[in-house]
Design goal:
The protein is an alpha/beta fold. The protein has helices spanning 15-27, 43-48, 59-64, 80-89, 104-117, 131-141, 172-187, 279-282, 284-300, 308-327; strands spanning 6-11, 31-37, 54-56, 70-73, 93-96, 121-123, 148-158, 194-202, 215-222, 227-236, 241-248, 251-255, 265-267, 270-272, 331-332. It starts with 5 loop residues before the first strand and ends with a strand.
């Protein structure tokens, strides 16, 4: 089957933007990286040119380009909503890293703008494209574990905690880290909606810090009776750790291990496994699959499998977590 690749302009050449650029250029035949934009002098060109693309210094150059069909947004989270709307207004298909906005109102603006423009809109919830999580979802959807009763999702970032707690924006653990877990729990409980949450969080790597929250546990109740927990840490010394578990009336399914291979070394210190020390390393195949889905949806003229509705549902849980933390009580999730 022959096709013309989707021509992509990427906005943001930071850590995740650099990874996305390489993935799109080298691992996704359905897509072609044609441009990268970043305001820092020379940064975009340094990333783009070895990948056969050009560097730009502003998002506006991407939006105005006739050779760009779709935009991938990997800029600062606070800019996502504005860039989504601008890309849609320019008639470009949109892939945005999570979160798709810093409030439910901002996310709704992106959903409305992309729908009005008639362009594809996909959000970067990569766990949905990891093979083990996908297999777990499919088993649940097929009824193999019966009725969903309990769920658990874990995200632990590698290292010893933020080098400078003062630069971590407030509520990051809910809106940018656990947002993946909230989407995963929604996805692994098909057809159910989160009703309310209880959130507990603290700064354990910098005790007493006025804004940093680096460890959190959240309990979520769903309208089908299922109870879920989401757990996050910014300080896992052993590596990047992403896991999920769902208990049903007829069985259980788990996903995620963190090991980079199935090899295990047995020596005097015990049984050892090499673990991933970053999301790019652990989730490279998932990142590849999500961009393949984005390109395929554009080429086929259909809605991507992860839409703005998923972004809104996950952020509604994050917003309820903030409210629960502030009040010290259970908080309702906005429908």
């Amino acid at each position: 089957m022959s096709f013309t690749p989707v021509r992509i302009g990427l906005i943001g050449a930071g850590r995740i933007g650099a990874s996305h650029a390489s993935v799109i250029a080298r691992r996704v035949p359905e897509a072609q990286l044609v441009a990268v934009a970043d305001p820092r002098p020379g940064v975009a060109a340094d990333l783009a040119e070895p990948l056969g693309a050009r560097g730009e210094t502003s998002p506006e150059a991407i939006f105005a380009a006739d050779d760009v069909d779709a935009v991938v947004i990997a800029a600062s989270s606070t800019a996502h909503a504005e860039l989504i709307v601008a890309a849609a207004d320019a008639g470009k298909h949109v892939f945005s890293e999570k979160p798709a906005g810093m409030s439910l109102a901002e996310i709704e603006q992106g959903i409305t703008a992309t729908a009005k423009a008639g362009v594809a809109f996909q959000v970067g919830f990569n766990r949905r494209f990891a093979a083990d999580f996908r297999a777990a979802h499919d088993a649940i959807a097929a009824g193999r574990i019966g009725t969903v009763r309990q769920l658990r999702s874990v995200t632990r970032d590698p290292g010893s905690g933020p080098a400078d707690p003062d630069v971590v924006p407030p509520w990051t653990i809910f809106t940018q880290t656990l947002i993946h877990d909230f989407d995963t729990l929604n996805w692994l409980n098909p057809g159910a909606r989160a009703v309310d949450v209880v959130a507990t969080a603290d700064s354990l790597t910098a005790p007493g810090h006025p804004t940093l929250l680096d460890h959190a546990n959240v309990v979520i109740r769903f309208d089908n009776g299922a109870i879920a927990t989401a757990e996050a840490s910014f300080a896992a010394a052993y590596g990047y750790d992403v896991r999920g578990e769902v208990l049903g009336s007829a069985g259980m399914v788990t996903a995620g291990e963190g090991a980079t291979s199935s090899m295990r070394l047995h020596d005097a210190s015990g049984r050892l496994a090499a673990t991933a020390h970053g999301d790019v390393e652990l989730m490279i195949d998932a990142y590849t699959a999500e961009f393949a889905e984005f390109a395929a949806a554009i080429l086929e003229g259909r809605t991507p499998s992860v839409t703005g509705d998923a972004a809104r549902a996950a952020f509604a849980i994050a917003q309820a977590c903030i409210e629960s933390y502030q009040s010290g009580t259970r908080a309702k999730v906005q429908g």
